[in-house]
Design a protein that fits this description.
With 391 residues, the protein is of the alpha/beta class. Helices cover 26% and strands 26% of the residues. Strands 6-7-5-15-16-17-14-18 form an eight-stranded mixed beta sheet, with helices on both faces. Strands 9-3-2-13-20-19 form a six-stranded mixed beta sheet, with helices on both faces. The chain has a four-stranded mixed beta sheet with strand order 1-12-11-10, with no helix packed on it. Helix 1 crosses helix 9 and helix 2 (67-81) packs across helix 9 (351-362).
Length: 391
């Protein structure tokens, strides 16, 4: 097979399925569909993995509060643990665990239920008292902590390496991946898809997968559909070397502030969720009042970091839905329009599962995981239920 250069934007006139979006969800879907024999065309207006995936923390976990999310998280852990073997790509997969520090006594029962749910799936997740949490990570400050949830089998990997591994595998199975191409229209005849209009021309197709992350709402509008995915800015700082930092640092999250940190080289990456406010696509780093608040949280939870200084910082986008759960399924008003988006901060870890699910939906097979509750129609019927463990 001949692989075209990254800058070439000529498109095939037809495709069995067009995948919109070249982040981890899109390339996973492209690979699984191509592996199943589908003629796949993936379109990305920027570079592969250049959107939200490029700025993902890389966490992979099963520590969720709903069965469907636990199952999808476990499939992510399984997929990434075998990724280097299956795809010939090193992704720096490490099982350093997730440590949740609970500061509100009212939240403890929910974390107890979370641990019980995970244990039903064989996950070694359990509650700790503050002293036990400090044994897991001696550098952590536990003032105000009433309990902790420890999930030692949760992990971390490198998102960009995953994207490149999926992309190479998708091309090897015949998929065409084009960057620098924007979708500007979706054509339909009644409830049937007929093609997509792009900045590089028209492609006739009877199936589309929307994996456009924070931009999915716009893609839905082009198809005449409401995909309630909104972009919100998230800022992250990276510190200089932290004295005494152990080789293994769990991805640690204080709840309910959602302040988190994890190891990045000799230092830490740290963030916490801003007030969502008004959605927008701005990704300018603006420390303003945010950085002093971050320093306050960091000083309380990881005091050794205060002398490390800020090495660099950036801002990226979360793709949020009203209930902070992803939407995965097939449109009813527009046949063969599939969506896998709105992951609300946990898209990277669910990338392996998303590709498998979309493949099965396309092939009209029963998915391995029951995803009925992730259908977009839940928002119209009032069936939405919020995920509590959101970072």
């Amino acid at each position: 097979m001949t692989t075209r250069g990254a800058g070439e934007t000529s498109l095939p006139p037809t495709a069995g399925c067009v995948v919109i979006g070249g982040g981890v969800i899109g390339v996973s879907c492209a690979f699984r569909l191509a592996e199943a024999g589908v003629r796949v065309l993936l379109l990305e207006r920027g570079e592969l993995g250049g959107g939200s995936t490029a700025k993902a923390a890389g966490g992979i976990r099963s520590s969720f509060t709903s069965r469907v999310n636990v199952e999808l998280g476990l499939r992510g852990l399984a997929g990434y643990s075998a990724f280097s073997r299956d795809f010939g790509t090193e992704i720096d997969f490490r099982r350093d665990g997730y440590l949740y520090l609970v500061t509100d006594p009212a939240d403890v029962p929910a974390f107890e239920r979370c641990a019980e749910l995970q244990r039903e799936y064989g996950v070694r997740s359990h509650l700790l008292d503050p002293g036990e949490a400090k044994k897991v990570l001696p550098l952590v400050g536990t003032d105000g902590v009433v309990a902790a949830l420890w999930s030692p089998d949760d992990a971390k990997a490198t998102p960009d390496a995953v994207v490149q591994g999926y992309a190479r595998a998708a091309r090897a199975h015949g998929a065409t991946l084009r960057t620098g191409v924007e979708v500007t229209g979706i054509e339909r005849d009644g409830d049937e898809l007929t093609g997509v209009v792009t900045t590089a021309g028209f492609v006739r197709t009877g199936a589309v997968v929307c994996a456009a992350g924070a931009w999915s709402g716009r893609i839905g509008e082009l198809a005449g559909l409401d995909l309630p995915v909104r972009p919100f800015r998230r800022q992250v700082v990276f510190t200089g070397p932290v004295p005494g930092l152990p080789a293994s640092v769990p991805l640690t999250i204080e709840m309910p502030s959602a302040f988190y940190f994890h190891r990045e080289g000799p230092g830490l990456a740290m963030s916490f969720s801003e007030d969502d406010g008004v959605p927008g696509f701005g990704t300018r780093y603006e420390p303003g009042e945010w950085l002093p608040r971050l320093a306050e949280l960091a000083g309380r939870r990881i005091p050794a970091v205060l002398d490390a200084g800020v090495r660099t910082a950036w801002a990226g986008l979360y793709e949020m839905t009203p209930d902070r759960n992803q939407i995965i399924g097939e449109s009813v008003p527009l046949s063969r329009f599939f969506y896998a988006t709105g992951f609300s901060g946990h898209g990277f870890q669910m990338g392996p599962a998303a590709g498998e699910l979309v493949r099965d939906l396309y092939l009209r097979r029963r998915p391995a995981v029951d995803i009925a509750e992730l259908d977009v129609r839940r928002f119209a019927t009032g069936a939405a239920r919020a995920e509590l463990n959101i970072v």
